[in-house]
UniProtKB/TrEMBL annotation:
GO terms for molecular function: ATP binding; DNA binding; helicase activity; hydrolase activity, acting on acid anhydrides. Belongs to the SNF2/RAD54 helicase family. RapA subfamily. It comes from the Bacteria. This is RNA polymerase-associated protein RapA. Interacts with the RNAP. Has a higher affinity for the core RNAP than for the holoenzyme. Its ATPase activity is stimulated by binding to RNAP. GO terms for biological process: regulation of DNA-templated transcription. It comes from Marinicella pacifica. Transmembrane segments: none annotated. InterPro entries: DEXDc_RapA, Helicase_ATP-bd, Helicase_C-like, Helicase_RapA, P-loop_NTPase, RapA_C, SNF2-like_sf, SNF2/RAD54-like_C. Residues 493-674 form the Helicase C-terminal domain. A motif (DEAH box) lies at residues 279-282. Keywords: Activator, ATP-binding, DNA-binding, Helicase, Hydrolase, Nucleotide-binding, Transcription, Transcription regulation. Transcription regulator that activates transcription by stimulating RNA polymerase (RNAP) recycling in case of stress conditions such as supercoiled DNA or high salt concentrations. Probably acts by releasing the RNAP, when it is trapped or immobilized on tightly supercoiled DNA. Does not activate transcription on linear DNA. Probably not involved in DNA repair.
Amino acid sequence: MTFIIGQRYFNEADVSLGLGHVVAQQDRMVKLHFGAVDEQRIYAKDTAPLIRFKPQVGDAINCRDGRVVMLTKVTERDGLLHFEGTLDDSQPIQLDETALADNIALSQPKDRLLNAQLDSPKWFQLRQDAAEVRSQLWQSDWYGLIGCRTALLSHQLYIARQVSGRFAPRVLLADEVGLGKTIEAGLIVHAQLLNGLADRVLFLVPDSLVHQWMVELLRRFNIHASVFDEVQCQALIDSGYANPFESAQQVLAPLSLITESAERFEQLKAAGWDLMVVDEAHHLKQPEYDSYLDSALMFDERTLSEDERAYAVIEALSEVIGGVLLLTATPEQLGQRSHFARLRLLDKDRFNDYAAFVEEQAHFEPIAAGVGLLIDAQQHNTALPLKQVDKLLAPHVADSVLKELHKLAQAPENTPAFILRLLDQYGTGRILFRNTRQSVSGFPERVLSLTTLQAPVSYVAMDAEVMGLSPEMCFQAQQDDSQWTETDPRIPWLVEMLAGLKNEKVVLIAHHADSIRALANRLREKYGLHAALFHEGMSLVERDQAAAWFADFEQGTNLLLCSEIGSEGRNFQFARHLVLFDLPPHPDLLEQRIGRLDRIGQGREIYLHVPIFNNTLQLTWFRWYHEGLGLFERPNPAATMLYEKFKPSLHQSLQAATVEQLIQDTREQSKQLLQTLARGRDRLLEYQSHPPMAEQWVDQAESAEAVDTLIDFMHRVYDLYGVDFDINSNGSEILRPTEQMQGHFPRLPDEGMTVTYHRHHALANETWHYLTWEHPMVSEVMDMILTQEKGNSTLVAIQHRDLKPGQLFLEAHYQYALSGRQNRYLAGILPPQRIRQLFSEGGKNLADQLDPITLDQASQSVPQKTAVAVLKAKLPVLKQLLQLADLKIKQQHNELIRHWQKRVKRALEADIVRLQQLAELNELIRETEIKQAQNQLALALERVAAMQPQLDSLRILVTM
Ligand SMILES: Nc1ncnc2c1ncn2[C@@H]1O[C@H](COP(=O)(O)OP(=O)(O)OP(=O)(O)O)[C@@H](O)[C@H]1O
């Protein structure tokens, strides 16, 4: 489309915005102002959902100054429409399209009906059904959460539903490795986008995960995030963008893009975002230095390390961006204090005192115990132990909560709601979510396969402490000529093991990229083994190519050699053998490594192959990880705390007796700590992140999918729009455009496409499009149906025993819809309202007596010629009935608006009261959240007051 400033367009996806005009355009973007709702919107030119408004000679058009002009001539000059016409008093007038009113309605069912432009009843029916379905979708709590290509897993659905309904949510998603934080974040973003709670979303991820994120967002969530790197930024600047980040709505960028360039950071900060997602947030390290937010110092390399700068830029961004999702599987990797620092990014006021934070955790235990007793009683269907619970809670909760507890004696069915309230008010649940393997079942067994090897003489000669956990690196640093790969026995051990595993895929991780490079050379040169490599010395594209080569089961390699960066975020669950070529220097890193294979979708047991040198520090660490913490069997939530404590001893070369003591102490303290955590913090976190009732949500979500209704609806759409569809026996359908197609059909490529409506097929066949009520094709089809004129005027015959033949009725459907930004969220409370009127020839409104279903069932189509004849014969009476319909709606208008305002007030006030109550008890409720909710209410009431009826469709019914 070519856009000229001043041209007038409708947004076909939201006609309630009124008639917009082009105010600016640049390269691929166009900006419109919609005067009726005073909003600016920016669109990509090639996908803009805009329809040019082109009135014709004979049309009466409304001008901005309120005058109405009957058009006698329409011409185009320099891209703008010029009109000649007459005013009411027959005065001639000339004007151009810039003078048109902003609130012109798009479809004109009245004109079409009176001009005998009648559509078949099928079109009318489709239009009514689309309006009904859309209204239900917008009211559904599941809208945005069940249309993604993901299995419906209760722990993810629960978190996503909790978070996605909030304004500007700020949370830490901290599920254990591989439990689906990316999926949870994707669901939250998707639902926020669909519900109009966010438009501009920024994803900042480690360099090595950019490609994987891009693919997951697109493949699972239909989110087309634009990937930004330095080259892309420069290209956009060269093409005229002052700020490259303003060119796209959803941006995915490596965090390094802004930590390495002050200019890019400032641009990103100025680009305005609703929501920011930061992956692998454990890398953010709060600087100790005070004025680190000073932008001149932030980028001075002498002041901050890379991880500290990462923290500083995210802190600066989180001060200007409302919604923030931080993702990390290992929140405590750098210790409790650094965990606290990340919570501080989400809420500075709340997390300003570390000592208080630590102290607070101690009170979680009695509350968790109380919640536990209630949940147990629920699950086993036994009497609620109210006295016991009262005793536990009384010292820690408000009196109002205890009162509610006592009421459960009379109304035990309110227990689940009470538990939720308790969790909501007395934990970190609103801000921190963490699911663990213990609370989410179905993970594979881990099988440890340990091989102890004699260290080569050259290693033994080195000082154990200096040698550390990667002896080969230490050796190499001291040698010029000989290579460690020539003597290291791990290599022949590896080759032999690989030979035994034949066609299995194997991931090998070592701490250093140099170890990986040397190992790859040796395997290739001496043994003819070609492995894929994945390390920080490679470009992002090279890494993605290597991962893809490894993932290819037909022509790919079976061995992937990764440095530690391969141990984060990547999906390698198609493999089940992991070689730990060395041990990482932190228990969380070990968990990250194992998590590449031990993640959702694994399905089979995984094998951990660990070669360890006797008589080295490696053995001490192995025993400490294994016998002390049990880390090769399952994650250990106490590991970080114990690491902090025992770190000094672990780094020393130790006598055998001291090692035994160290391991015994670790084991005992781990046991105690785990028990304490399981009673307090972790238990509460577990309930908050995945309460038992979440299981039922999966069933609810499944029934909200309404797959059969969708299939029926889409089949009618294909029939009417001329799209060819073939149903296959494998659960898919093939859609193809045809010559008979009625204009453009959204998202249907010329070559056709394979689709499925079923989740299990969609998960198994990633090349098929997964059509759901939330899929862009389906949403755009509904937009198309509801905004085009087709189906807004029809005539049918009806045969019904209660209705005498020869009568005529006029059915008019008016629609009231909210307009403006966030209308989707409000639309959840007040979806587009349809007012139906049904008049007899005598002007009696029979809408309540004759419901639409009865009429639909009794109706038959009428040949076009007959319909036109009836219409002509009844024109005078129809005109009167149309006037009557308008009059009636005007009479009801104020009453309707008041009624809807009450409804909106009731819903939004309940939210505000709940937040205020929570704020008294739980500091995690932010003042801004309450203010936002109050502003939202004021805005909503204004929006409701501004609603105007639009005549949507008309049907004439003639009885036989
Ligand atoms: N609901 C789901 N449906 C289908 N696949 C899923 C689902 N949840 C997770 N997965 C798959 O499981 C793997 C792990 O999920 P994800 O990457 O979201 O976990 P994570 O917690 O972010 O992992 P990490 O801690 O390694 O960053 C991915 O391959 C993901 O696609």
